[in-house]
């Protein structure tokens, strides 16, 4: 019943991206957001991938990041297939970004399309990726206040995407960016899809990254928005440890360990139990046991209030089929009132 309601709610998105006139609409969107190349000044490269690179730049007076994707120019079947996939990825990312407006989602500035070259211009995130920020720190060095603040930024951005029927499918610290004020924004929607598409077809493991990938994606099974919740669990774990998950395993070994052995990285012994409890719920093997991002935001906001007031955090309750138990659990999440004070003495907002 909930799935049917979500389908109806996002029918406009479905018609836009999955309707019979998709190519024409995609072309219209690209034309609407076409950048004036004479205003674009390309600066140094700040990141690169297998078929793309990202440069710092200026668009007029605005600092920007420029993602440039180069398609192969050969005529063999493999090159033709890669070109088609890259064009589809470009169209999907532009179609999505052009309609998203949220403080925790990277904002589109403009696009360019040339033969075998695709440009996506977004706001510049001056402090780079969350991955670079975390792995430049000592292990287990982030205080709970900062962990919760950064996690809230990610969860709010993901709640916004899921409310619009969008599944990211590759949520990881490399695709989370920090602006000049330390706010995290969700980026890189090139492998995203509408949930109806993810449910209707097998969710290919090619869309994500094994270290952060849900077991159902590794198995190429049908999947839904809960794959992003699993990935968020790994992101939250990284916030608590400042380490790469399964760092001593190859990607293939990670896939085997997660699927066949139900392996997860060891939880931080210094992290508050309530945060570790949320991590475990998010990376549950069963998608139905993973909370929705709306609930995750509510829990993290409760944690933030508790930390500010010097009160202990209450763990997310286990899911229950009993309506009364669910109601009591929801009340428990919102409440952190206690006569016991925590040992935290500084309740000010901590910025990285």
TrEMBL record:
<dbReference type="Pfam" id="PF07714">
    <property type="entry name" value="PK_Tyr_Ser-Thr"/>
</dbReference>
<dbReference type="GO" id="GO:0004672">
    <property type="term" value="F:protein kinase activity"/>
</dbReference>
<dbReference type="InterPro" id="IPR011009">
    <property type="entry name" value="Kinase-like_dom_sf"/>
</dbReference>
<feature type="domain" description="Protein kinase">
    <location>
        <begin position="40"/>
        <end position="303"/>
    </location>
</feature>
<dbReference type="GO" id="GO:0005524">
    <property type="term" value="F:ATP binding"/>
</dbReference>
<dbReference type="GO" id="GO:0005737">
    <property type="term" value="C:cytoplasm"/>
</dbReference>
<dbReference type="InterPro" id="IPR051681">
    <property type="entry name" value="Ser/Thr_Kinases-Pseudokinases"/>
</dbReference>
<dbReference type="InterPro" id="IPR008271">
    <property type="entry name" value="Ser/Thr_kinase_AS"/>
</dbReference>
<dbReference type="GO" id="GO:0007165">
    <property type="term" value="P:signal transduction"/>
</dbReference>
<protein>
    <submittedName>
        <fullName>Os03g0588400 protein</fullName>
    </submittedName>
</protein>
<dbReference type="InterPro" id="IPR000719">
    <property type="entry name" value="Prot_kinase_dom"/>
</dbReference>
<dbReference type="InterPro" id="IPR001245">
    <property type="entry name" value="Ser-Thr/Tyr_kinase_cat_dom"/>
</dbReference>
């Amino acid at each position: 019943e909930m799935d049917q309601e979500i389908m109806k709610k996002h029918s406009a998105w479905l018609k836009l991206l999955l309707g019979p006139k998709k190519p024409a609409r995609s072309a219209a969107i690209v034309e609407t957001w076409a950048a004036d190349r004479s205003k674009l000044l390309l600066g140094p490269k700040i990141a690169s991938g297998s078929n793309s690179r990202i440069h710092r730049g200026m668009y007029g007076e605005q600092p920007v990041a420029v993602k440039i994707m180069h398609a192969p120019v050969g005529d063999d079947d493999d090159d033709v297939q890669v070109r088609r996939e890259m064009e589809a990825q470009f169209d999907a990312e532009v179609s999505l970004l052009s309609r998203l407006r949220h403080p925790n989602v990277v904002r589109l500035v403009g696009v360019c399309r040339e033969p075998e070259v695709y440009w996506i211009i977004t706001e510049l995130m001056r402090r780079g990726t969350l991955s670079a920020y975390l792995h430049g720190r000592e292990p287990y060095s982030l205080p709970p206040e900062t962990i919760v603040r950064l996690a809230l930024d990610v969860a709010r951005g993901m709640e916004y995407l899921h409310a619009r029927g969008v599944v990211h499918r590759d949520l990881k610290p490399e695709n989370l960016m920090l602006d000049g004020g330390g706010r995290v924004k969700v980026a890189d929607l090139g492998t995203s899809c509408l949930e109806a598409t993810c449910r209707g077809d097998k969710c290919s493991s090619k869309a994500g990254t094994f270290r952060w990938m849900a077991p159902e994606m590794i198995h190429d099974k049908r999947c839904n928005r809960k794959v992003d919740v699993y990935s968020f669990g790994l992101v939250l774990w990284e916030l608590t440890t400042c380490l790469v998950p399964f760092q001593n395993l190859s990607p293939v070994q990670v896939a085997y360990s997660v699927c066949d052995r139900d392996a997860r990285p060891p939880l931080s012994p210094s992290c508050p139990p309530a945060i570790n409890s949320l991590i475990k719920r998010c990376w549950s093997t069963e998608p139905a046991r993973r909370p929705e991002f709306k609930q995750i935001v509510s829990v993290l906001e409760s944690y933030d209030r508790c930390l500010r007031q010097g009160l202990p955090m209450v763990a997310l309750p286990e899911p229950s089929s009993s309506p009364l138990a669910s109601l009591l659990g929801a009340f428990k999440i919102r409440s952190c009132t206690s006569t016991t004070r925590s040992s935290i003495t500084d309740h000010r907002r901590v910025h990285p």
